[in-house]
Amino acid sequence: MALDQSFAKKVIEKYTRETDSEIIDATYQYGVDYIAPIPYPTRDGIAEVLKQSIHPKAKTANPDDFIDMSLVKKLDDGGFFRSVRQKQ
After folding, report:
1. Rounded to two decimals, what is the model's pTM?
2. Whether residue 47 is found in the same domain as residue 71
3. 50 and 19 in a common domain
4. Average pLDDT rounded to a whole number, residues 55-78
5. pLDDT value, residue 25
6. pLDDT for the residue 81
7. Mutual orientation of helices 80-87 and 70-77 as an angle, nearest 10°?
8. What are the residues whose beta carbons fall under 8 Å from the beta carbon of 39, sequence distance 6 or more?
9. What range does the domain containing 26 cover?
10. So what's the pLDDT on residue 1?
C-alpha cells in the first residue's frame, strides 16, 4: 500500500497540535506499524472501550454484544479495501 507520508504527518501535526518532528515521526510510524489496514473490530478493543467508559453499565457489559463484523466483512469481501489501497 502506497502511503503519502508527508501528507499524513501534516495531518498528525494539525490535529494533535504537535510541532516536535520526533513525536510526529513516532506517531506516524505507530500508525503504519500497528493500525490494521482492514478495521475489523476486536473483542479486546471493545472490552477496553467498555472498561474506560463512564457509563455505569459499561464495566459489566459483554463485549460480544457490541461486535458486528458484517459491514466490514461485506466491504472486505466486495474488494473495497483492496480498491482503496490500489488508488494510493
Report:
1. 0.54
2. yes
3. no
4. 94
5. 95
6. 85
7. 60
8. 72
9. 1-35
10. 45
Query: H or E stretch including 20?
Result: none
Location of C-alpha cell 463485549: 63
pLDDT of residue 24: 96
* Calpha distance 54→56 (Å, rounded): 6
DSSP collapsed to 3 states, 41-79? CCHHHHHHHHHHCCCCCHHHCCHHHHCCCHHHHHHHHCC
CA distance 85 to 3: 9
Grid coordinates standing for 61? 457489559
Same domain, 46 and 25: no
Residue 69: count other Cβ atoms within 10 Å of its Cβ.
11
Reported as type and span, the H/E element at residue 19 is: none
What average pLDDT does the chain have? 89
Asked if pLDDT for residue 23 goes beyond 80, the answer is yes
How many domains is the chain partitioned into structurally?
2
